[in-house]
Amino acid sequence: MMDKTVRLELNVNPLFIAALLLICYCLSLNLSVLFGVKCYYFSTDKLNWIMSRAYCAETGGHLVIITSRDEQDFLSSHAHETHWIGLNDLETEGKWMWVNNQTLTETGVTFWYKRTDEQHEPDNWRQEDESGENCAALGNESLGTDVWFDASCLKKKKYIFALPAVM
Ligand SMILES: [Ca+2]
Ligand SMILES: [Ca+2]
């Protein structure tokens, strides 16, 4: 009698499975997009910077921390108007820190808006808010999201929330 046992070998790359799980995980959280190993949520509501930081922390993530040109380009291509990011100089004027306490030197990339007249961002402009501008955003009310601006933390903007994909 012939042995009709069939051995089924599944040769699936574990990285492929991990990527699939990650996508399901992001979708289950209703996060809008996925890049690399992070899920991003582009808010539909507007909050001031402090409130947006608190909201993100409550939900187990944080305001986005940008650590590469690719990540900046990716976020900019999805953000069609100004959004808060997790960068501020609230503690010491001019000393910009990410919400995880990394400095810009440590992350190694900056995308501040540069004007031809040398009046670059961040400019800590005090015309609207005398405490200056201590929170950073992709874009501003009139210019594109491919560059960063400092703005008054009291302004209400949409925000980008990131969740490290730790499973
Ligand atoms: Ca400032
Ligand atoms: Ca500014």
UniProtKB/TrEMBL annotation:
CDD domains the record matches: CLECT_DC-SIGN_like
Keyword set includes Membrane: yes
Keywords of this entry: Lectin, Membrane, Transmembrane, Transmembrane helix
Organism: Pygocentrus nattereri (Red-bellied piranha)
Chain coiled-coil ranges: none
Name this polypeptide is given: C-type lectin domain-containing protein
GO molecular function: carbohydrate binding
Regions crossing the membrane: 15-37
Domain C-type lectin, residue spans: 35-162
Pfam family, any one: Lectin_C
